[in-house]
Write a structure and sequence with these properties.
Layout (H helix, E strand, L loop, with lengths): L3 H11 L12 H4 L7 H4 L5 H12 L6 H17 L4 E6 L7 E6 L2 E2 L5 E2 L4 H5 E2 L19 E5 L6 E3 L2 E10 L8 H19 L9 E15 H5 L2 H6 L24 H16 L4 E6 L5 E6 L2 E2 H21 L2 E4 L13 E9 L12 H20 L1 H8 L20 E2 L2 H12 L7 E2 L5 E2 L5 H6 L10 E3 L4 E3 L8 H28 L4 H15 L12 H9 L8 H4 L6 H9 L5 H56 L3 H37 L4 H29 L10 H6 L2
The structure holds adenosine-5'-diphosphate and magnesium ion.
């Protein structure tokens, strides 16, 4: 009988690098070729129309149907010249990933002749009737209408034969059913709040945007091996598999030479990304074998997030061509590093100032410190919520498992910045801030700029680290839509800045000079946000104890982390910032719980199947071989066989014990799953899966992995870690 695993391994070894044609032109000549950029619009849309459009986009004004109609004509012409026959509203449902419904450029003229058509209303709004997308009860079936509506702030692009139009996805009644809608709302909220605070320092600041630079980690696996692992196919991760003798202990993969097959994949991926205007820049091996990272240059957060989603689907498509599958799951393999998506986040004014970058003079530094402490204060208030924004059934495997996100959100500042804040905090109230005749100001922190330039003090254990001119939110999962985390971050900072300004204004109204008022509130923030600051080892047990004492959110159960969305403080914050209503928050939580339970239901079913169809049969076959041996030895050697068969007999009993345990646990798991499945309430269901089903899955895995070690290699049917992680 042919062993499926062996043929998969043989096939995998046969796969050679798939050569990629070089572009033969410089990057600027093809960068953004498939994007309907502002520049390109000029060739297709009348000047006056464009002026109106740009004014609407830049100043947040509504776009009328007539304007949309004029834009659509030019957009269609460009798209068709670039090979598009169809158009699609491209949106970001709460399932994760992106969704599209494709329509042809087709209509009839008055005489009934077929024409290529794409109207303003088709650009503007679609009704995908996507009634199967999760909505957490917002859309009742009798009004199961969801609308997608054009987001003109993110440019349309062509992929293959279709024009993709970035859209938001909302219910008939206006509630958000996606990630983009609240992300855009949060950008508006923070833009307003941050601009107001900037105006203390510079009256010329008109707007503030948020930047995001994501670092996408992922694993590659040969497609033949992937196909031989039903758990990878169905759940994106291995539900069993003993660690291989060599994993990442030599650190020889990290930043090592990229294997040829992988380089070919990356080259093609980058070519396609650049054509789509995604400024991909960095590629390297990651810590675990067969793990890699891709990062672009940062962009405005809404665009950056669209680009990240686009990259994730591009990766999957291009991986196929290279006989790979890309694993975006946060933890495809137990015991080796998982994959995250560090989100580098900062705020920038329309005048080009990075608000998280220390300034060149004390005045600019006061602005820097203002924004820094407000981010700290926001996280201090809502650390549990920020954790909720990144939790999922898949990312739960990373949290608290000695990987960059411990299950506690804290901020790393580094010793020097900490020292600077300490100085401000302890400065003499009167001497702390000296304003001389030239309106120059001394803060007692005049040396901030030099300090931060050599801020090499990078703490890899921190989930939220200040890295010189930005914060790096490292707890975001590799498969996540960064929008969830970014909108929470924008919103909490917006709320905090609004409150900060109210306090400063109150002091000014009571006669305090502006700088002194700012200084006072900053000091208060520094004093009140000590709990969230932690520069030590985020993985240590001491930190867990300390964090609990400090009142930080230490919840480790994923379904319970989600509760933080519905804390009164969260609801008030989201409503105040106009980002999510209570109704929307409730529905989002329901979707999160449903998703959690559904993922675990699938995992536990797949595990049950694999155990019964692969593991136990292999173990029993090996048992049979051993039994045969014992019988034959007994037959030939009679009483003398006693010593010879001793080890075999022990092994037979060992296997029998594992088999019994696995069977018992699998039956118990099925019974518990049934109870969970029959639980109506999504939250209760998720909790049941977490509390009752997961422990059984873990216990089953232990026995299975033990068996893998002792069963004859030839009889084991599922590709092993040493094969999946090292064949490339
Ligand atoms: P790391 O050492 O963390 O790997 P990289 O140099 O690879 O850092 O940068 C990570 C990401 O951070 C990149 O996408 C980069 O463009 C982005 N980045 C740099 N500066 C900023 C900033 N001010 N705001 C947002 N993102 C930034
Ligand atoms: Mg980084």
């Amino acid at each position: 009988m042919e062993n499926f695993r062996f043929s998969a391994v043989a096939k995998a070894w046969e796969h050679k690098p798939v050569e990629v044609k070089p572009m033969n032109v410089s990057v600027p000549t093809f960068f953004g070729r498939q994007v309907f950029t502002r520049e390109r619009m000029r060739d297709y849309i009348a000047e006056q129309t464009l002026e109106q459009l740009f004014d609407a986009i830049d100043n947040n004004k509504p776009i009328g149907r007539e304007l949309a109609g004029s834009v659509a004509i030019g957009m269609k012409k460009w798209a068709m010249e670039n090979g598009a026959t169809h158009f699609t509203h491209w949106f970001q449902p709460l399932t994760g990933g992106t969704a599209e419904k494709q329509d042809a450029f087709l209509g009839f003229d008055r005489e009934g002749r077929a024409i290529e058509e794409f109207s303003g209303s088709e650009l503007y709004q679609q009704e995908p009737d996507a009634s199967s997308f999760p909505n957490g009860g917002i859309r009742n079936t009798f009004e199961a209408r969801g609308y997608s509506a054009w987001d003109p702030t993110s440019p349309a692009f062509v992929i293959e034969d279709r024009l993709c139009i970035p859209t938001i996805f909302v219910a008939y009644t206006g509630e958000a059913l996606d990630y983009k809608t609240p992300l855009i709302r949060s950008i508006d909220a923070l833009n307003k709040a941050a601009t107001d605070v900037c105006n203390y320092f510079d009256k010329n600041v008109r707007s503030v945007c948020m930047n995001l630079g994501w670092e996408q980690e992922y694993f590659l696996i040969d497609e033949a091996l992937y196909a031989a692992r039903p758990d990878l196919v169905m759940t994106g991760r291995t539900l069993m598999g003993h660690a291989s003798s060599k994993t990442q202990q030599l650190d020889d993969h990290y930043f090592g030479t990229i294997p040829e097959r992988v380089t070919c994949f990356m080259t093609e991926l980058e070519q396609e990304a650049l054509k789509l205007g995604i400024p991909v820049k960095t590629r390297h091996n990651e810590v675990a074998p067969n793990q890699f990272e891709l990062a672009p240059i940062f962009e405005e957060v809404n665009l950056a997030n669209d680009h990240n989603l686009l990259i994730m689907s591009l990766m999957e498509k291009i991986a196929h061509k290279h006989h790979f599958r890309v694993l975006l799951h946060e933890k495809p393999y137990a015991g080796v590093n998982g994959s995250g998506k560090h989100c580098n986040w900062s705020m920038q004014t329309n005048t080009g100032v990075n608000l998280l970058s220390p300034g060149k003079n004390p005045y600019a530094n006061l602005q820097f410190v203002t924004f820094l402490v407000n981010v700290m204060a926001a996280l201090n208030r809502h650390n549990g919520l920020l954790k909720a924004s990144i939790i999922s059934a898949t990312n739960a495997h990373r949290l608290g498992a000695n990987e960059a996100p411990p299950a506690i959100i804290s901020i790393f500042l580094g010793t020097q910045l900490t020292q600077a804040l300490n100085e401000i905090e302890n400065a003499d109230e009167d001497k702390g801030i000296i304003i001389n005749a030239k309106k120059e100001m001394k803060l007692g922190v005049s040396h901030i700029p030099e300090i931060l330039l050599d801020n090499t003090d990078r703490n890899r254990t921190s989930p939220f680290a200040f890295t010189g001119n930005r914060f790096e939110f490292r707890a975001v999962g590799s498969s996540a839509n960064c929008g969830a985390a970014m909108l929470a971050l924008n919103a909490v900072v917006a709320e905090q800045l609004i409150d900060f300004k109210a306090e400063v204004d109150a002091l000014i109204a009571s006669g305090e000079a502006k700088e002194r008022a700012l200084f006072k509130v900053i000091r208060k923030c520094i004093r009140e946000t000590k709990a969230i600051r932690f520069d030590g080892n985020g993985y240590s047990d001491e930190w867990k104890a300390e964090a609990a004492k400090r009142g930080l959110d230490c919840e480790t159960s994923a379904p319970l982390m989600i509760d933080r969305y519905l804390d009164p403080a969260s609801v008030m914050m989201f409503e105040k910032a106009n980002v999510l209503t209570l109704q929307e928050l409730k529905s989002r939580c329901d979707v999160k719980w449903e998703n959690y339970a559904a993922k675990l239901q699938i995992e536990s079913r797949v595990l049950g199947d694999l155990v019964k169809n692969h593991v136990l049969p292999a173990a029993q076959r090996y048992q049979g071989v051993l039994l045969d041996n014992v019988l034959k030895l007994n037959k030939v050697f009679g009483d003398e066989a006693e010593a010879m068969t001793k080890e075999d007999k022990l092994m037979i009993t060992k296997i029998a014990r594992h088999n019994d345990e696995i069977l018992r646990l699998t039956d118990e798991m099925a019974a518990l799953r049934k109870v969970a499945n029959h639980t109506e309430d999504a939250r209760e269901r998720a909790i049941l899966f977490h509390d009752t089903v997961v422990p059984k899955m873990e216990a089953i895995r232990e026995h299975v992995d033990e068996l893998e070690l002792i069963v004859d290699d030839e009889l084991w049917t599922l590709p092993k870690y040493r094969e999946m992680l090292f064949i490339r």
